[in-house]
């Protein structure tokens, strides 16, 4: 049995119960998420050959400072950077460093700002200069899989409908879905119940109700689905070193569907974001 609780009176910690948020909470999520989305928009101009992922991280710190928002990943469970930068076969949780980006690479930047206690969690893919058609196609498939997952978000549907929509499409495109990482409840907590799997069957999992807030963040591979985590304890890579991509939005369930909190203020969809 799934327990749904009023987020206003529920204990802040992740008890496994699913918090239902009110309109004021949605406004808080909207505000935090729009800073995240504006940062991801602004990064489009910065990301090019020669730029280091540390410079991306520095930008995220400075953008946050200007907007009074705090990067949630900084010192989160020992993570020492203000965003994740995941290049080519890195699935997620790549750690920014001093190595310059090279023409033809693809990179996911994952940013979570905290504003007034609310976490706006989103990520996008960026192309470093000109990229190969296979990379471009993977990015398109991953973006579309997130869109299809979001279309499945409405009251009465289940979390399994989201995963099923993503998996069915991605696999029909001869890509694979990463199983080891999932979307998550988000709000005053960075990672909360429920888990949002990016694979599954219709009607499985938790029933969606108005007021739920969570992320959808499919990681899609050109090759096999298997991943491993490197010895730094964070960097997840495809075992077959195939190219991988991810997009992430934070969404809230409404009476009729959902609100995408982290939608791009500039209206950006796919790279190149010009
Ligand atoms: N933002 C990531 C997510 O989508 C989590 C990053 S945690 C970190 O859930 F510690 F790796 F930064
Ligand atoms: Co997330
Ligand atoms: Co994220």
Topology:
Elements: E1 4-6, E2 18-20, H1 23-46, H2 53-66, E3 70-71, E4 84-87, E5 90-92, E6 106-115, E7 118-127, H3 133-151, H4 159-172, E8 176-177, E9 183-185, E10 192-196, E11 213-216, E12 219-221, E13 227-229, E14 236-238, E15 244-246, E16 249-253, E17 258-260
Helix pairs in contact: 1-2, 3-4
* CATH fold-level topology: Creatine Amidinohydrolase
The CA-CA distance between the termini, in Å, is: 47 Å
**Rounded mean pLDDT score:** 98
User: What ranges have pLDDT less than 50 throughout 5 or more consecutive residues?
Assistant: none
Strand content: 25-35%
Distinct small molecules bound, one entry per kind: 2-amino-4-trifluoromethylsulfanyl-butyric acid, cobalt (II) ion
Q: Under the CATH scheme, which class?
A: Alpha Beta
Order of secondary-structure elements? EEHHEEEEEHHEEEEEEEEEE
Number of helices: 4
How many structural domains in the coordinates?
Answer: 1
Would you report the number of β strands?
A: 17
Second rung of CATH, namely the architecture: Alpha-Beta Complex
Structural class: alpha+beta
Main β-sheet, in a few words?
A: 4 strands, antiparallel
The portion of residues assigned to helices is 25-40%
Query: In angstroms, what is the radius of gyration?
Result: 17 Å
Which homologous superfamily in CATH is the superfamily?
Answer: Creatinase/methionine aminopeptidase superfamily
The coarse silhouette is globular
